[in-house]
Amino acid sequence: MKKYWFLLTLVFTAGSAFAQAPASSGGALKKGDESQELEKVKKRYWAAGEEAEIGVVQNRTYAKSGKFELGLFGGLTINDPFLNTKVAGLDLGYNLTEYFGLHAVAWKSFVSPSSALVTFEREKQATANTNLPKSYLGLEALGSVFYGKLSVLGAKIIYYDLHLAGSLGATETENGTYITPGVGIGQRFYANKWFSVRLDYRLQFYKEDVKQKTIVTQIGETIGQRNVFSNTITLGVQFLLGGF
């Protein structure tokens, strides 16, 4: 009987020592230690509200702060149903920060009669009192409000930024030159650190003189004014130059 008690005592003693071994070994973690390790992992992968660490997450792959830009573009303007207007121009700017830049924009207009004007002239034996745009020159402030990346069919990542614009310039027409404020929105898609493709929409406003073009009164006489809302869509390329 004593043998059995002796064997049972050995079994319980060995089992107790085996169960306590991990807790007492140097490589094991206590509950408090596990919490500390978890916090270290969280701090490594999350910014934890620190602005300096958040800034690292927000670093742009294609930085433009302190760099000049040169752009070439073409597009079309819609402001008169009797005219087809295409534009070609250039853009020269400087990026004060990643989020704000100033640009000088200029374009030349190429105008042809629309099918509506051709039909009108054929049926009425007269022409409409159009005012052909010639060119535009202005200053534009850009604010880059969104920046991110897109996946193209899961095969390639492209980087883009979306900007809002405010502008003030002058539109030259056959009847005169008019002060032209405007607003716009656009997107830029980066191919590499110095080259991008840019798409823009601009809404501009000016008040133009209307001159008579038919023999109802004296030809060329100013007969009034009208408001013009000009919608311009352009597509072009941008080159980043220099920088710090």
Key attributes of the depicted protein:
244 residues; alpha+beta; Porin; 8-stranded antiparallel barrel; 4 helices; 8 strands; elongated
Can you describe what's shown?
This protein is of the alpha+beta class. The chain has two domains: 2-57, no CATH class; 68-241, Porin, CATH 2.40.160. It is 23% helix and 52% strand. The chain has helices spanning 2-24, 31-45, 51-57, 115-124; strands spanning 68-78, 83-95, 100-113, 133-152, 156-173, 176-190, 195-211, 222-241. It has an eight-stranded antiparallel β-barrel. Strand 6 and strand 7 form a beta hairpin. Residues 21-26 and 47-57 have low confidence and may be disordered.
Shape: elongated
Radius of gyration: 35 Å
Question: How are strands sequenced across the largest beta sheet?
Answer: 1-2-3-4-5-6-7-8
**Portion of residues within helices:** 10-25%
CATH class of the largest domain: Mainly Beta
Sheet-strand content, in percent, reads over 45%
The beta-strand count equals: 8
What profile does the largest beta sheet have? 8 strands, antiparallel, barrel
Whole-number tally of structural domains: 2
Tally of separate helices: 4
CATH-level-2 architecture of the largest domain = Beta Barrel
What structural category characterises the helix and strand content? alpha+beta
Q: Name the helix and strand elements from N-terminus to C-terminus, one letter apiece.
A: HHHEEEHEEEEE
CATH-derived topology of the largest domain: Porin
